């Protein structure tokens, strides 16, 4: 049977036919000659029937597939031309393919070349292929077995992302770039964990000597409930443990310095997390939607945090950030609806936007004395927050920063405050008193709209002066169809213009309410001709639309 098998292998390798069930090769020499001639005549036709392709510089690039599926063998040669490339999305959603043989003439398996081939179970890659690009086999959910040759020197992160059934990775031992240890793919020197098959194992201990866990290395290993990371690991890549929803707890070694973006997102069952004492960088969305976490302590070693690190960790009730941490990014506790207590150190200088967005159970926040900026939406709809001390360094309060904090009753703004954004304290329905320790800051539109608050300022501070008719105002007097004048005052100060028709028995009525923003406010009364006498006065000082009073 050697002759039969050898001939079949040779025909497949030489690319003279594209489906291994097309023809049975017998030992008869006559039949062999006939088969060879027949196959060589059929291949161009079949290639055209199953694949769309282009010819470029004497080589063929496959751009699409429309064949019957089943066991698909991509030919290495057709019409005397080598098949050297498979384009991005060439086999996209080819759900009828069950097994695939890729010839070594294909040097690079392109980005998303076989995305969503959900019926694909086996892949054999021929010797000569050098690189498997990112998402090459993305969402091939039935893929169980992959055979890789010695020639492969690059396997991009995420090449087999969402291949839930992957259980076996076979690698030629002669490969100079990669190795297999206990079924797991590593770099040749086994210092980088590249890919853990997603379909097997309920626990895994990463071997000693590993320094780096690559992007997507253990992503979507749904069965893993326990992972042990040894001391010596330095970095955890992006999405490295993404979607390990059965993972129950995790202790990170003190050797670890960097956690990548989305590294542990959707590890929904993780109830305990120890970040160690060495990590300096935590990436964006690193623990996004880890809903089982109830408390977290961020060590002093952390110097940089990406955005939304604990985004929608809806089980989190308390958090503490150690002294030494300087940056916490935007949206650190975004949507953590059960979070009640947070302590931030004096080393944190800024609250990014959306830091506590919709933390509707938050009742206690300790801000460090170095915070200079409270970002947009920082405490948006923290509806249980009764009060907060902003420290003495705050310079700016962003747009909607405390919007909807319906239990907030009083707030004291330090003398350092220079700007207050639009609707910063709007819809704070219990807010009765806003105390300013310094000069009047610049304000955005309607910072206190929907509040019953009175604004209090300290005598002797600047910018709270009552508005008045501008002295020497050339616009004072009658103009075409109106009587008017300019009103001067500090930006943010408001007042009303009131009128009456009899000073001996005055009944004053408001004809205009306004806030001075950029320069004098011009008032004009087009109805003045309707009355024989009309008297005007300024009254009812306001700041940001709220009554203004000295303390």
Describe, in plain words, how this protein is organized in 3D.
This protein has 551 residues and is mainly beta. The protein folds into 3 domains: 1-200, Ribonuclease Inhibitor (Leucine-rich repeat, LRR (right-handed beta-alpha superhelix)), CATH 3.80.10.10; 317-328 and 352-462, Leucine-rich repeat, LRR (right-handed beta-alpha superhelix) (Alpha-Beta Horseshoe), CATH 3.80.10; 468-550. 6% of the residues lie in helices and 30% in strands. An 8-stranded mixed β-sheet has the order 13-14-15-17-19-21-23-25, with no helix packed on it. Strands 1, 2, 4, 5, 7, 9 and 11 form a 7-stranded mixed β-sheet that branches. β4 (77-78) and β5 form a beta hairpin. The chain is elongated. 40% of the residues are buried. Mean pLDDT is 90; it is low at 1-46.
